[in-house]
Amino acid sequence: MALTPQTDPAFLREVDEELRRDQLGQAWRRYGKALIALILVGLALFGGYLWWQANSESKAGEEGEQLSAALDDLSGGRPAQADAKFKAIVQGDNPAYRAIAQLAQAARKFEAGDAKGAIAAYRAIETDSGIAQPFRDTALIKGVAAAFDTMPPQAAIDRLKPLAQPGAPWFGSAAEMTAIAYLKLNQPQKAAAIFNELAKSTEVPETLRARAVRISGALDERTSAPSAPQKEKTE
User: Fewer C-beta within 10 Å: the chain N or C terminus?
Assistant: First the structure.
């Protein structure tokens, strides 16, 4: 008897491999120095805003200069000097700058092949109630991405649930990883529903939306295809 759409391992493997190549393989595993710097500059601007709201101008300027110098070192190919500066910032009193430095340290660990250390670092940021929610959300999505290959699919779904809702921060990435997790659980109907939602969303990047259109179409065809006919029983 032919396999039903829900249990076609070759198709699910093909979908999973395409998504890994496009998303996880490029966006999460190969942090280039320029990309790290770009992300951290954006976080630094937000962190700087929070800091200037709550603290004195002179102290913020000093830590801002230190962070800027660390980012310059990182983008300039001086990781050891950057790490030293990030370490000093982590020991400071400003939770926003501390979060930025911790995110940088976690990314550096992952880039160096220390996935276990990176996952633990992201988790520490995610669970730190003294850090602003945008930083914790960033740590959550990056931590799950770093652990995605080894963590149980249902655990990934549960962790990503707050961010896998339309309008939530990191919606596109969280929803896509959730769909991949459903494929791992052999639940293509649920994965297809998420990809259909991403395909219609205006909140996600065009590249992600285009990929969702392709995958949702393929999954819809498979899940709607009739199963092999059963032989009628003879009396």
Answer: C
